[in-house]
Amino acid sequence: MKIIKKYIPLAIVFIFGMITLASYYVPHRTSEEYLEWINRWENIVSAFALFLGMISLFYVHYKKIERKVDGWGYSLFVYIGFLIIMVAAMISHGDISKGGKVTCLGWTFNNIYNPLSATMFSVLAFFIISTAYRAFRIKSTSAFMLFLAGLILMLGNIPLGEIIWDKLFSWTHITIAEIKNWIINVPSTAGKRGIMIGIAIGAAVTSLKIIFGIERGYMGKD
Amino acid sequence: MKETLNKMLKIDRRWLFLLLTFAIIIPILKPIGIPSKSTSDAVKDIYDFIDKLPPGSTIILSLDYDPSTAPELHPQAAVVLKHAFKKNLKVIIMTFLAGSGGLIDELVRTIPTKYSKEYGRDYVLLPYMPNILAALTQMSSNIYAFYEKDIDGKPLREYEMMKNIQSYKDIACVVDITGTAILDYWVAYVGDKYKVPILGGVTAISQVGYGPYLQKKQLKGLIGGMKGAAEYERLISEVGKGTSGIDALNIAHILVIVFIIFSNIVLLILKFL
Amino acid sequence: MMKIIKFSLISLFFISNLFAMPSKSKKQAEQKNQNIELSSLQLIDYPSDRGDMIILKWDIEKENDLTYEIYVSTNKENWIKAKEVKNGEWTLEKIDLPFWMWNKKESKNAVLLEVTKIFSISEEDFFDKYKDGFKLYAKLNILNKNKRFETQIVEGMAKGNWFRTDRLNSLITVIIVSLVFFIVVSHAKKKELFIRRIAGLDAIDEAVGRATEMGKPVIYVPGIGSMSNISTIASVFILGEVGKKIAQYDATIKVPHYDPIVFTVAKETIKQAYIEAERPDSYRDDINMFITQDQFAYAAAVDGMITREKPAACFYMGYFMAESLLLAEVGASAGAIQIAGTDIDSQLPFFVTACDYTLIGEELYAAGAYLSKEPMLVSALKVQDFGKLLFIIFASILSIILIIAAKTGSTNFTNTILDILKVR
User: Does B131 lie at the interface with C, CB-CB under 8 angstroms?
Assistant: First the structure.
């Protein structure tokens, strides 16, 4: 049992990890074909995993409906929504429009999915304002630097900000756009590159740990 | 007074949301027309590049965004398409994102007719393709290996504008409008490898991350967010959703700045009380 | 007499040659096809490629206004014009290969030819038919003012190579780092190695304790990455440790999932965590739930969960994009203690402002070692530090050298250093 649960997965990870690492240094067509083959297998495994996920989704919501817990009506909507889109997709054969006319699926996409998705993204704007009101309070020097950089970037991003800056600080002979570009190109990029280098090295070492079986979190514990 | 000030610091977020709602809705309903002073270099670069293409050149317009990022990216796609049609360029529209179908549909239902452009002669729509890497690589030698038929299932080769198109060597440039990392794929697998000029359109938050590509000219130009779309609309002298949204963007930004300054003033007063 | 005969014969010879001289047009025709032997002309396989590229090279001539027409063929009969280049326009320097592959200073014309494009063969057909290599012939037509010369035919083979010699620098770096990795890990001591304090990870105990006291659940969000993301793997490891603590304190945890594969792995992880904490009876299957693979639908579902359940603690560990602030802000409004960790730099500002503790980039990767204190994992952290140290040293020294080289105008040396640093 230990062989199946522990050693075989470790062997698979090691073999495929080493081959994929080696394929970076092998330009031959064989190496490209291997990568394409692995991608196809990844898609197949994902499809099976999605099936398992769907079972879990329906099971969890079924239990909520069965026990009539608080908000069980929302769980009913999971089934209803799923059925509506499935039926629409089957009627339209997966097409959003046919011969210039919007199909059933296209209608659900334009009138249900589009607005819902756009709404969720637009909620971000409101959350940004409440976070900014709460978080940009100057309680230390670094908070002040954060506030200053944020202020300059916000002003630099809008035409009105350029007008305000020109009215107040035109005597400096420096435009807000120049300061904004400097902040983005110099300190911001420098910090970003530092974080990226750390992440890249960390990712490389973590990959080695996974390939050589030292990090086994993905398998569940021993 | 201290209590009042403390209450102000801990104000219910919903009041802030309400103020922001008014700040966005009012300029959209009644545009103010705040003048824009400058155009960013990256937007100017993309405009110049497309403007200098000879009429009849074919470009690829890859639209890879879904409804969540549509407010920022849809105006960009619209303005690029309008510019391409104004310059009598041929456009191959494609996508690698399943959720963008409806948005592309909306684009081609309105814009081509305005410029008297005909499907098959001036533009074609390719179907959604899930395997982006394979598609990008295959198109370097033969577009039809992956895109045998158009979105309506008709053979692609039979369209008038596709008669002399075989691969990237027949394409003048690629414009990718996306809210995902798909632009990175175009730059790495097409721009760098096959030396095809790549131009991009991204959300405002992602724009900063493409600075290195612009510096090294791996990206010939970049439109960033709604502001970028508004700047481009001004360059082609056409008012669109980018321009109409910019007033709301201005007021919303100012409101955020006002709130931040206000909360800091209140904090300062409380410190001395 | 003999002299007269000799003289007559020689005169006759020359007179007959005079008549044999071709007319002007014929002369021109012969000049168009004038053959020339170019000894330096070579057709060589492009090194370190998959087999569809070949290089034609020959010496750069002193005469500047020469134009070369390159013709290629597979059978010496049907010639295709591949390219037209000027003398000195395309050289070895312009071909992006490092100095250890060939001498770039050689004064040669070098033109890269892509076989599939020239012969209009699809890549699939090409690699199916020409597995062992593609033989082709090439020749040059040299245009010099009004004169045309045709060179000899050279042959070459475009073959797939098995090693990318241009990536030798990166391979050496990988080998060095791997060797250090093995040495450090094999000497992993039982004695505790020092790791600096990571506030976010120390706060896990506090968060779980708070959840137990308040009788509220802990919500753990593993992000929207797949199992191939390093940050997701790190997140699953932290989930195991958090799960163990939850089981020990008998608190509740809920883990909503975006990716079905991560869902199956996390399920196993949590189950194992409960077994290790000797609370297998407390484990429930619905701790992990798959929500959806749509980014904002997932964010909406998790927001709803946070708003209804009012958790005591929220963990956001893994790969996040635009939904990061949606989750963090709702968690903040629910009054939960929030610990976040991601390697996506564009989302870090949102987490830093909205959460109580944030793990930045590699702190997330270090979580495994930090929480478990396993000697081997901690030793691997030291390898990360070594890698960073190596980078700092190289970057500093080479930057100084490059500045000096650029100022003194030694471009060859500068190019050599840049070749060593470039990853192709």
Answer: no
| CA-based nearest residue to C76, from C131, C117, C32, C136 | C136
Backbone angles phi, psi at C150, to 5 degrees: -120, 130
Residues of the domain holding C91: 42-162
Q: How far is B50 from chain C (nearest CA, A)?
A: 26
pLDDT value at A184 more than 70: yes
Interface membership of B169 toward C (CB under 8 Å): yes
Three-class SS state of B192? helix
Q: Is the pLDDT reported for residue A222 higher than 80?
A: no
C209 and C176 together in one domain: no
In this predicted model, which residue has the larger pLDDT, B68 or B20?
B20
Q: Residues C394, C397, C401, C406: what is their CA dihedral angle, to the nearest 10 degrees?
A: 70
Q: Chain B window 44-63: which residues touch A at a Cβ cutoff of 8 Å? A: none
Q: Which of residues 46-75 of A touch B (CB under 8 A)?
A: none
Are B61 and B171 part of one and the same domain?
yes
Record: contact A154-B257, CB cut-off 8 A = yes
For B6, the domain range is 2-30+249-272
- Chain A CB within 8 Å of residue B239 CB: no
Say if CB A153 and CB A183 are below 8 A apart.
yes
Is residue B174 in a domain?
yes
Chain B residue with Cα closest to C121: B141
C251 and C361 both lie in a single domain: yes
B36 lies within 8 A of chain A by CB: yes
What angle, rounded to 10 degrees, do the helices at A189-211 and C168-186 form? 60
Q: What is the pTM of this model?
A: 0.79
B231-254 burial, b at 16+ Cβ within 10 Å, e below that, comes to bbbbbbebebbbbbbbbbbbbbbb
Which residues from chain C sit within 8 angstroms of residue B13, using beta carbons?
Answer: 333
C122 touches chain B (CB under 8 A): yes
**Which tokens hold the place of C397?**
């020294």
Closest CA to B156 of B146, B169, B170: B146
Q: What are the φ and ψ backbone dihedral angles of C356, each rounded to 5 degrees?
A: -75, -40
Is B209 in Cβ contact with C123 (below 8 Å)? Answer: no
**C167 with A219: Cβ contact below 8 A:** no
User: Cα–Cα distances in Å, from C36 out to A169, C31, C41, C149?
Assistant: 72, 11, 11, 6
Question: What would the DSSP string read from start to end of C320-389?
Answer: --THHHHHHHHHHHTT-EEEEEES-TTTHHHHHHHSSEEEETHHHHTHHHHHH--HHHHHHHHHHHHHHH
* Top-confidence residue, B94 or C5: B94
b or e along C11-30 (b: 16 or more beta carbons within 10 Å of the residue's beta carbon)?
A: eeeeeeeeeeeeeeeeeeee
Q: Rounded to the nearest 10 degrees, how much is the dihedral formed by the CA atoms of C361, C366, C370, C375?
A: -170
- Closest partner residue to A133 among B35, B106, B263, by Cβ? B263
Q: Collect all residues with Cβ–Cβ distance below 8 Å to B34 and sequence separation of at least 6.
A: A159, A160, A163, B246, B247, B250
A60 in C contact zone (CB under 8 Å): yes
Q: Look at residue C140 and give its three-state secondary structure.
A: strand
Q: Which two tokens stand for residue C406?
A: 């650029």
pLDDT in tens, A76-119: 988 999 999 999 999 988 877 776 677 888 888 888 888 888 88
Using pLDDT thresholds of 50, 70 and 90, give the confidence band for residue B28: confident
Find the DSSP H helices in C45-192.
115-118, 123-129, 168-186
- B244 in a domain, yes or no? no
Facing residues of C57 across strands? C42, C110
